[in-house]
Write a structure and sequence with these properties.
Blueprint (H helix, E strand, L loop, with lengths): L7 E3 L10 H8 L4 E9 L2 E10 L7 H28 L3 E9 L4 H9 L2 E10 L2 E10 L6 H7 L4 E9 L2 E7 L5 H7 L3 E8 L2 E8 L5 H12 L1 E10 L9 H7 L3 H12 L11 H8 L3 H20 L3
């Protein structure tokens, strides 16, 4: 039942002695049939819901299917509670994992090309899937196309900025991809690097998170995984109300998208790593649109800081 995530029915508890302790307990209470319903969300199992009946063969296919859907709804609710707890906690737990599997496309690519892959950030987009920013170092930027063909996580990669020994790139965050699954589980990626046939991942989770299930999730993606460090951090997964959060409430979704992409791609550095025209091409908008939203965001920030109090 736990392995295949499907409800399991026992039509007649009294028909197959000797009995397990739970079967004896059910029979002593007058029950003759039961169904075990796994409480699941995505690939995580939170527990099992037991439903019993006084009559044998009380659960037909329709009732079993309805109870299976109920288990999924409860699993979704439990995941939502976990995520809310993560946002309210003033602490978080940082997990560091070592990844070793030269058959994984990302690690295999890094080993064959003798290069380094480094995750930078996940950037939300307005009315579109988020994008992942990452660096490739030690290879020509043009090789990202090969990485995209070999790695399901890298969808439609595009060059954001050329670096001395590689480039900064963006790609679509696949809905069913590994990073999206991590975020859905309430984990916040901090680092993901691949260098040769080994990799390193750092994620933040809420206190009380089932660490074993997250390690198993990494194992489905990277095979050989070792949890090398587990640290309590005096920082929440999401910051408490500050100037930064107040600033975000003053921005439209489009303004926040453009400002975040500009920040992460080096637009505000001096000298600038990318131009307004570069950003416009990445975001599929015009250069005046980028400039207008950047100016509007700067004005909101300065109003917030200088008009405070």
């Amino acid at each position: 039942m736990i392995r295949d995530r499907d409800p399991r029915v026992r039509g007649d508890l009294g028909g197959d002695p000797p009995f397990e302790p739970w079967e004896r307990a059910a029979l002593n209470r007058g029950f003759r049939a039961c169904v075990g319903v796994p409480l699941v969300y995505d690939e995580r199992v939170y527990g099992v819901l037991g439903v019993c009946a006084e009559e044998p063969d009380a659960f037909d296919r329709l009732e079993t299917a309805v109870l299976g859907e109920l288990g999924e709804i409860i699993g979704y609710a439990l995941n939502a509670v976990d995520r809310k707890r993560a946002l309210l906690s003033d602490r978080s737990v940082e997990l560091e994992l070592r990844l070793r599997d030269d058959t994984t496309p990302l690690l295999q690519f890094a080993a064959e090309r003798d290069c380094e892959f480094a995750f930078r950030n996940i950037v939300p987009r307005t009315d579109e899937p988020p994008v992942v920013l990452f660096e490739l170092r030690g290879v020509a930027p043009e090789t990202v196309a090969e990485l995209g063909r070999r790695t399901p996580e890298i969808e439609e990669p595009a060059l954001v900025q050329r670096l001395d020994d590689g480039g900064l790139f963006e790609s679509r965050l696949a809905d069913s991809g590994f990073l999206a699954t991590l975020v859905e589980r309430g984990a916040i990626p901090q680092a993901l690097t691949a260098n040769g046939s080994t990799g390193r991942a750092v994620i933040r989770v809420a206190p009380g998170t089932d660490v074993r299930s997250l390690v198993e999730l990494f194992e489905t993606q990277y095979g050989s995984v070792e949890l090398v460090a587990r640290r309590t951090v005096d920082e929440p997964l999401e910051a408490s109300p500050t100037v930064a959060s107040e600033f975000r409430t003053r921005l439209t979704d489009r303004q926040e998208e453009i400002l975040r992409m500009a920040h992460d791609s080096g637009f505000f550095k001096w000298p600038r790593s990318v131009s307004a025209q570069d950003l416009a091409e990445l975001l599929d908008v015009t250069q005046p649109t980028v400039s207008r939203h950047v100016r509007a965001g700067e004005r909101e920030l300065f109003d917030l800081v200088f008009d405070e109090g």
